[in-house]
Amino acid sequence: MNARESIPSWFLVSSVLLATALTGCARPTPNAPASARASAHANESFLAAGPDAGGAYFPLQIGNRWHSESDFRATLTAPAGVLTVVIHADITREIIGTETIAGRTYVVERSVTDEDDPSGPFNSWIRYRQDAAGLYEADVDISQPPVLDSGASAGPINAALPEARDLPASFAERMSADQLDAYQAAWDVLQKRIVAIRSIHALASGDGASTARGGVLPGELTRLGYPLRPGATWVIRDDPFFGSIVEANGNLEVPGGRFPSIRIRIPNEFMGPNDVVRVWFSRSGQLAFRYHLESVATDVDGNPIGTVSADYDETLRDFSLVRP
């Protein structure tokens, strides 16, 4: 393990969500699917290399590839001081083919997450479908490899990302029994929220209602609802509740380039008063994801004695899109 620590390490956490602190200036015009493509930047702009007209917003051409880097920062504030550890990860996503499920054709995105943790890399797969009304995902466990329509291999089958992590013994040894119980309880709450956020990709929604523009079908969740205007909302899932709120359109600059983008906040029923989850999209795909979570440790009388928090930031470093 080569996690970078500002104070000696006391736990490890894996995560695949994507974020950045950069947000652009809000604009009143909607970031809806476009019917034409603009001229390219020198590095193949998202509009020139992005999807065709006809309602497509998220680029789903086979061969599209994105490379991101992330940092997961966990902080414990205790009477003895503050402990922080940062876990770095390198993440590659690629559209590798199609899979037919229940008579529907889905485009498969493979994600490979390589953390500082030497037990990786970890694999996951998302099945996308898109129409003029939105971007949807099939209700399939993201750790389950696809059966591609082409018959080609889905790639190396590595371990799936672990679920919640235990509070390490090295940290427990520094605490009294009462403190350990308090921080273990706070840690467990935080882990449940992290698992819930990560599980969004595997949650299903949809009652079969659709229009001429399309719509979510049974066994699917809605990742994006078009058009993407500020103030627009949709439900990812009713029970447990996950929603989406388009907060703003603007320009976002990441190492992979500068993009007109949308910023979406994802509320859910597991969140605490200081928790927030946000994601940024453009016609080049998902640009960034960020979350901040807090859990309070209390003594046997219910008095707060400290906090455990988690911050995840992932940003697009570079990408390559296939012209449609």
From TrEMBL:
Would you say which domain of life the source belongs to?
Answer: Bacteria
Designated name of the protein: Uncharacterized protein
> Lineage from the top down?
Bacteria, Candidatus Eiseniibacteriota
